[in-house]
Amino acid sequence: MRHLVRMVATLGVILGLTSLFGAVAQAQTPGLIAGSPHDLSGLTTATDEVCVFCHTPHQAQSQSAIEAPLWNKGIPNAATFTTYDSTTIDGTILTLGSVSIACLSCHDGSQAMDVVINAPGSRGVVPTVGAELDALAIGAIGTITGTAGDLGTDLTNDHPIGVQYGGFDPGTGQIDPDFAGGANLQTANINGQDVWWLNTTGGPATRDKNDVILYTRLNGATPEPFVECGSCHDPHQGAGVGTGAGTAVNFMRIANTSSDLCLTCHVK
Question: pLDDT digits over 77-94, tens only?
């Protein structure tokens, strides 16, 4: 009888722990993509996968087309976008880089957000252009966010992207004094490539998600730091991590309290 009582008690503890762990697993974790506005799986019954709307392990866009990791969407033509420019910009402006084109795969409003090249399971591959997972459910970004998220192709009223950071001089490393440089502008060589970022924490000079990332692009034959969408935004931040990054709407790398994000780059 005592053995039976022990067995029942042990089983009760196991079931209790199982329920607890199950509850934890199902809860939204701040800072993760699951449950954030970039998790489109809740808008359709076609799939419960979260990552498939942007990434696929097989049959992705080629790296020659876009250097976004295993990109699973049709991509817009960079030449169709008009970006911000003014006489006060002394840095080179190039056509948009891959990271910005990846964002604009949805945010230009030209295609439904559930267009993918490789559908989950065995439902087929539509190379290069992709096809909708659920033609009735999701639609283009403007149907959900309105004009706030639907940027279109005219980006002249948006922060400059595809622009050289602070008129960077590859020979001297000097930048426009209106931009943060010196100890704030960090550089390293990772996997044989020069990279740059702006340290937002004042801690160890190691690049992380809460830093402002500058994207290495060739300006002629020289690798230089450029500002792209991902410099200020991290699409995987979800809701609230680190120093206050990733609000439920804008996925900022750090919170812009007292213009902290702006002042990371701009000396004002």
Answer: 999 999 999 999 989 999
